[in-house]
Structure formats: structure tokens, C-alpha cells
Amino acid sequence: MYRSLLLGLAGNSAAEALALRYGMRLGASRFVAGTTLGEALAAVKALNGKGIAVTLDHLGEGIRHLDEADGYMGAYLSLLQAMNREAVNGNVSLKPTQMGLALDPVSALDRIRAIVREAELHSLFVRLDMENSPYTTATIELVRQLHREGFSRVGTVIQAYLYRSAVDVKRLTVERINLRLVKGAYKESSSIAFAKRDDVDSNFKRLIKIRLDSGVYTGIATHDETIIDWTRSYAHRRSIPRSAYEFQMLYGIRTPLQESLAREGYTVRCYVPYGERWYPYFVRRLAERPANAAFVLRNMGRRE
């Protein structure tokens, strides 16, 4: 009920307008590294200084016009150039709908290709974030197409709560495509997704096993210490080197855990979002954990 209610607010324009007016002051800044590239770069430098790699995400989704997609493409090209110039230890993540996937898949591929090409010039990597289920197949096919064209520094995300994910992981592993594995953060029907947490966790472990056993590089994105400990134990038993995988977490969440794993010698990557269109991302973070919403409510109580 709690999660469904909050996810329902993600597309509510009135709620978004209110949040954009007050949200950064009331707590969104804990989860979003500012609205400008400069603010984001300051945040990633601090993380790099602690031995934590990053993936930068210029937030934006659900665009209505292709000129918006052109603007986001330009922003990502500038981001990649800035990361190279500032010697950032990181990569970038983007949403395919941000590049026009829902409006014109052909031109969306062109924009993403231009970004991937720029990334390869600087030896950087591009992750196509996975959005809700209407875009799962199209997103996977975008990545497969780019690999067929010879672009290797691009990968995507697989969500463990979808029934189809084991099949997708096996196919993409055969093609040696870099993946980020997550539990999943969108509201999906029980006809296509596991509804129970235990079932999602079980499938998540299954996907992690497939990838670790394959030797294809994998990002394991979770704040769940039980899953993290299980992964470390499994990798140790199977003599899988730490260089074969990394742990990924979100900006502002479980920061001490991120720092601890980095000190232990694990590769840790923090997902650092920024930009003016932060509201849908922020709502999904609140929906994931009641503690996140409680943090915002406490800040509301302190506002003068």
C-alpha cells in the first residue's frame, strides 16, 4: 500500500510542482547531488576521494518532444567531456526514454550512439538504465544493436522482479554484455513480476549466480546487506575474483556501508543523479524504504 501510493505520485503534476518548489530544501538533496553539473562534479570528487567510483545520471524521463531529447544528448556529451577533463573515476547512466525512445526509436538510437561514441573516445562506459516494463525489450535491443556495431562500452540493467529476467540474463551473458543487476523499483503487474519480497530476493540471487559463474563483469546493485554478504560468500567459495564484479549503491543511501566495502578492497560504485527533473527519481527512492520518507518528514518539521 505504502509503495503503491508513493509510486502513484511519480506522475502527478500537482505533487511534482509542490516538490520542485520545496523538495531540495526538505530532503531531496540527500538523494540528488544538485541541479547542475558543477554541483554533481563536486559530489563525485568527494566520493572518488574515498575510493568510491561513480555513475553520473543527468535526470530526465518522460519527455514530450524530440527537441528535449536533443537537449539531453547535448548535456551528456558535455558531461562526458567534463568527466574526462576532471579525471573522474566513473561512468554515466541514461534513460532511453530521455533520448526519445517512446517517441521515435530510430532517432533515440542515433542519440544514444552519439553518446556512446563520445564515451569511447574518453574510455568511459555508458549504462542504459532500465525503466518500466513497456521499455524492457526495446532497451535490451538498443544495447545489443550497439554491440553488433562494435561498441563495447555500453551495457544495461536487469530487474530481478520480472519473471523474464533469467532468460534475458542468460542471453546477454552469452553476448558478454556488461549488466547491472537490481531488484526493481517500478510498479508492475503480478502477471509479469514477482510480488513477494522473498521471491524477488531468490531470483536476484539466481541472476547473481549466473553472472558470477560466467566471468562477465557485473554490477550488483543493492543496499541489502543480506544479499551483499551472500554475494561475498558465494564469490569466495567459487574463487571468483573481486575484479569480476562490483557493488553499486545510490547516492545518499547506506553511505557508511559504501565506504566500508571500499576500504575492504571491493569496487564500489555510487549512482549519482543530478538535474532539474529530479522528482520521479526522488519519489521512487521514497517508495523503496519508509525510512527515506521519514527523513523527508523530519525535515518538513524543521522548516521555518
TrEMBL record:
InterPro entries: FAD-linked_oxidoreductase-like (IPR029041), PRODH_bac_arc (IPR008219), Proline_DH_dom (IPR002872), Proline_oxidase (IPR015659)
Coiled-coil parts of chain: none
Cofactor detail note: Binds 1 FAD per subunit.
Molecular function GO labels: nucleotide binding; proline dehydrogenase activity
Keywords from the named record: FAD, Flavoprotein, Nucleotide-binding, Oxidoreductase, Proline metabolism
Presence of the UniProt keyword NAD in the record: no
Pathway in which the depicted protein is active: Amino-acid degradation; L-proline degradation into L-glutamate; L-glutamate from L-proline: step 1/2
EC number(s) reported in the record: 1.5.5.2
Gene3D superfamilies assigned to the protein according to its UniProt record, in alphabetical order: 3.20.20.220
Residue numbers binding substrate: K95, R284, R285
Residues annotated as signal peptide: none
Cofactors named for this entry: FAD
UniProt xrefs under Pfam families: Pro_dh
Residues annotated as binding FAD: M130, Q159, K183, G184, A185, T222, H223
Residues in Proline dehydrogenase domain copies: 41-296
GO biological process per UniProt: L-proline catabolic process to L-glutamate
Catalytic activity: L-proline + a quinone = (S)-1-pyrroline-5-carboxylate + a quinol + H(+)
PANTHER family: PROLINE DEHYDROGENASE 1, MITOCHONDRIAL, PROLINE OXIDASE
Protein name, per record: proline dehydrogenase
UniProt organism field: Paenibacillus beijingensis
